[in-house]
Amino acid sequence: MKRHLLDQTPEEWEMGSGPSYQRRVLGQWVFEKRASSFAQMTSLPLSLRRELADRYELRSLRRARVRQNGDGVQKLLWELPGGDAVESVLIPAESDAALGRLTLCLSSQVGCAYRCAFCASGLLGFRRNLSSGEIVEQLLQAEEAAGRRVDNLVFMGMGEPLANWDSLLRSLRLLTAPWGFGLSPRRITVSTSGLVPEIRRLAEEPLAVGLAISLHAASDALRSRLMPVNRKHPLPLLLDACDEYSRKKRQRITLEYILLAGVNDSDDDAADLSKISRRLRAKINLIPYNRVDSLPWDRPDPARVDRFESLLQKSGCRVTVRTRKGEEIFAACGQLRLATLPDSSPMRI
């Protein structure tokens, strides 16, 4: 079975005994010119192109389904070898969908093992980690679908990125290295449900990528009910790890907080969240819930969302409310994949 070229870094590519400059030329074709086949790499010898094509693949994902709404949000469903599926979401800036900043939300795993109570990704269980090639290829194919380069990357799609540590780190190196795609680490955000040891490991890495915490509750009792990961990594330990990350990287953490009607949207919840935000000097991103048919949760009414935001602002927090984009195209994590699968299917499309 062929290996994905981007499952390795350039120094690991098997290229025979040819001149050393050919490795640099191959990198230019892959990272700068975004070549999708070895046949396109006409500045490399034909014999080498054939050898590479026999050994490696550049594209392993098949674009199985695309949905786009009136805001320009595109939900992309990728079929993997063997029939599993993952998702990416292209999100244009609100001001100008055609010319403004373009953000891509990447998946890191097929399914998810962490089973947050409100999330569609974990409903059909965890299948496997994505390789670094499968992660980075989402960027390449999404850019082809969009007809332009992506400005920002967020690891907020299917799966827990920090639970796929090796592929995540290799992906980040490919994405940010001068010899790679050359993206600024400041334009990349990794989201986690709260894996404390891995947050501390990431704090030791040289890359100063953004960190977003999927918080969703400001008390241990409620967070443990909504997010089983909190039983292993409770809030006090998580907040200590966030303190360390913020201090070492010298940047603000973002707290992601999905608003669930009657569950975590009370005035007391806002007060508790404010304390956490002010302790960490973290930004808060409020996310009114995207309804999932098979789950019992609902979005608060607009007046409740406005009051929650106002209470946080009055307490001195920096807060934004995520605009409702993509609901009609199942843009929340795992929704399009879930909608595509029959109830009896383990994870195939």
TrEMBL record:
Cofactor(s) recorded in Swiss-Prot or TrEMBL: [4Fe-4S] cluster
Record-linked PROSITE patterns: RADICAL_SAM
Reactions catalysed: adenosine(2503) in 23S rRNA + 2 reduced [2Fe-2S]-[ferredoxin] + 2 S-adenosyl-L-methionine = 2-methyladenosine(2503) in 23S rRNA + 5'-deoxyadenosine + L-methionine + 2 oxidized [2Fe-2S]-[ferredoxin] + S-adenosyl-L-homocysteine; adenosine(37) in tRNA + 2 reduced [2Fe-2S]-[ferredoxin] + 2 S-adenosyl-L-methionine = 2-methyladenosine(37) in tRNA + 5'-deoxyadenosine + L-methionine + 2 oxidized [2Fe-2S]-[ferredoxin] + S-adenosyl-L-homocysteine
UniProt xrefs under HAMAP family: RNA_methyltr_RlmN (MF_01849)
Entry's Gene Ontology cellular component terms: cytoplasm
GO biological process: rRNA base methylation; tRNA methylation
NCBIfam families given in the database record: rRNA_mod_RlmN
Signal sequence coordinates: none
Record-given protein name: Probable dual-specificity RNA methyltransferase RlmN
Enzyme kind, highest EC tier: transferase
Gene: rlmN
Family assignment from sequence similarity: Belongs to the radical SAM superfamily. RlmN family.
Further remarks about this protein from its record: Reaction proceeds by a ping-pong mechanism involving intermediate methylation of a conserved cysteine residue.
Source species taxonomy: Bacteria, Pseudomonadati, Verrucomicrobiota, Methylacidimicrobium
